Amino acid sequence: MSEESKKNFELLWQEVKSGRHSAVLNLSTTMSIALPDDIELKKTRIIALINLEKYEEVLNLMQGHSGFDFEKSYVLYKLQQFNDSLEISRSRNEKPFRLLRAQTYFRLSMNREAVSEYEELLKTDKDNLELKINLSGSYLGPGLYDLTLSHPLFSSSNDWELLFNKACALSELRQYSEALSVLRTTERIISENKDLNDEMWLVKAQIAYVFHSMQDIDKAVEIYDEIMKSKAEPNIKAVVKNNWVIAKNCELKLGIKLLNEALHEDNKLVGLQKLGILQNIGLLCYKKRKVTEAYDMIKKCEGIDENNQRLGFFKTYVLYKDKKHEEYKNYLLAKDKPWAYGLLMKLLLEQNKLQDAEKVFELMTNAKKEALDANDYMEISNLLEKAGMTDKALKTLEEACRNYKNKNLWEKWGNLLRKTDKYEKAIQVFESYLEKTSDAGIIANLVLTAAGIQPEIAQKWSSKLPRVNIKALYNSANSVESLDEIIDKLEFASLQWKTKTEEKIIDEIQKKKRKRKHKPKYPKGFDPKNPNNPKPDPERWLPKSQRKEFKKKGRKKVPKMKGPQGVVLAEAQGQEVGGFNKNPSTAHTVAAGEGKKNKKRRR
């Protein structure tokens, strides 16, 4: 190697250490003319281009060269070509490839695969906070929210990002008060650290979303407005704009304009965020019966991720509303996913197509073992029970309780077993739930179930129920109240509560009434500050024609000639009978039908 080349390499190394990527690129490009086959020099150019976000140039530079698998996979990931990136990273098991693979799984909404990859990585690097945060974010997917709350990672952490992800899981599980509490704690932690001030808008956006989900639209819109006027990051503003359109129930033109602004490339939205906005544009179009535009949005969504569950619900909704029953049925069956079978079964049960629903149920039980959402399990079991398919409802609840430690599901399962006289199985279900958690409602159901067949179990668990305040049962006469008296009191309390609620609603409606913006119109010359000067006209309420001072405008009309037409009497013309006219006569006797004026008809 020549002295000049050595000096260039030393200079290049200094530029790399100082992080001047443009200078590194220029120098390495110049050096590669003399050393075209130097692999390290080529790698330096590639890294400089990646740091300068010139990804297309990187791909062109790597053509015909091997040994750059990670760089190529990373560049494809940055260009959002996730499937191509995953194809490369799947074939390698080194740590950088595994990290990139886990993140690609997350971007493709393959949350279970991402969780599995991050869990494996944490086994060898337990104290890595970034891995923990990425793992907590991967748990925010359908069927995984319950696992988030029970994971030890979230039990005693004070990191704001972990707390934020926990709040997101709680809001998806509709535990809104708990979610708000965690978000307020996160807000306090961020406010105490000046370096994290920019992250405050992300937390505020989630707080607004929780209020929105609780139907407290005024509070949600107030926070959305604050974020849109702030210096928050473009992607946060874009998501907030989308939520604002839904909260305000915007008209078509304004809604689509704002949602298209949110989709702008500068906002750097991820695939899921783009999907959500495109679906909302499609829904707005469909509500205004612009069906062609709605189907165009579905095609765009399929171009991003055709296997997305929310997209499946959106497409099925449009096909169902258009009464294309065979199309949505074939579409959902082709998906071969539990969520698709569950959705199809709900639609069939609502249409009372029980035989078709039974066939779909069999397909769902034999499908890939992916859990449905807890609310879907509950809804399907209710529909099956209503349709008289109790055995299938019990089977659905059993599968649901295998995946979730959800109180409502377990309680529903136990109570349905009791209704069908399967008392022993119901006792086992309630006791299984109480092995790890204690709940007064479940204990009460267990005591009620066991009282008739296994009184010793009922007695054992009844001691764990909260004690009743016996004194509260006595009235002012120091005697135990009758059941009728207690019921009367409860009904009176309920009536009072209803009255107060109604009064509150009426007050809120009156407050929301629009105030008059225009000034009131006063009579001419009237001074509102001095209403009695001048005094108002006492005849102001009478019609003008009946007032004293009224003078009719217009020319004076000649009085109409009255009397019979034809020959006129002599006296009427001032002529004496049998004599001459007293005055020169200008009268002319007009015979009937003579001398009529030519009057034009009105058209």
What does this structure look like?
The protein is mainly alpha-helical and 603 residues long. Among the domains are: 3-138, Tetratricopeptide repeat domain (Serine Threonine Protein Phosphatase 5, Tetratricopeptide repeat); 157-232, Serine Threonine Protein Phosphatase 5, Tetratricopeptide repeat (Alpha Horseshoe), CATH 1.25.40; 241-323; 405-468, Alpha Horseshoe (Serine Threonine Protein Phosphatase 5, Tetratricopeptide repeat). It has 29 helices and no strands. Helix 19 (309-321) packs antiparallel against helix 20 (325-335) and helix 23 runs antiparallel to helix 24. The N and C termini lie far apart (110 Å). Component of the signal recognition particle (SRP) complex, a ribonucleoprotein complex that mediates the cotranslational targeting of secretory and membrane proteins to the endoplasmic reticulum (ER). It is found in: Cytoplasm; Endoplasmic reticulum.
Named CATH topology of the domain at 3-138: Serine Threonine Protein Phosphatase 5, Tetratricopeptide repeat
Q: CATH homologous superfamily of the domain at 3-138, by name?
A: Tetratricopeptide repeat domain
- Output the number of helix runs: 29
How large is the share of residues in beta strands? under 5%
Overall geometry = globular
**N-to-C series of helices and strands:** HHHHHHHHHHHHHHHHHHHHHHHHHHHHH
CATH architecture of the domain at 3-138: Alpha Horseshoe
What structural category arises from helix and sheet content?
Answer: mainly alpha
Assign a percent range to the helix content: 55-70%
Distance between the termini: 110 Å
CATH class of the domain at 3-138: Mainly Alpha
How would you describe the oligomerization state of the chains in this entry?
single chain
Biggest beta sheet summary = none
Instruction: Tell me the total number of β-strands.
Output: 0
Report the C-alpha radius of gyration, rounded.
42 Å
What value does the average pLDDT take? 78
Poorly predicted residue ranges: 565-600
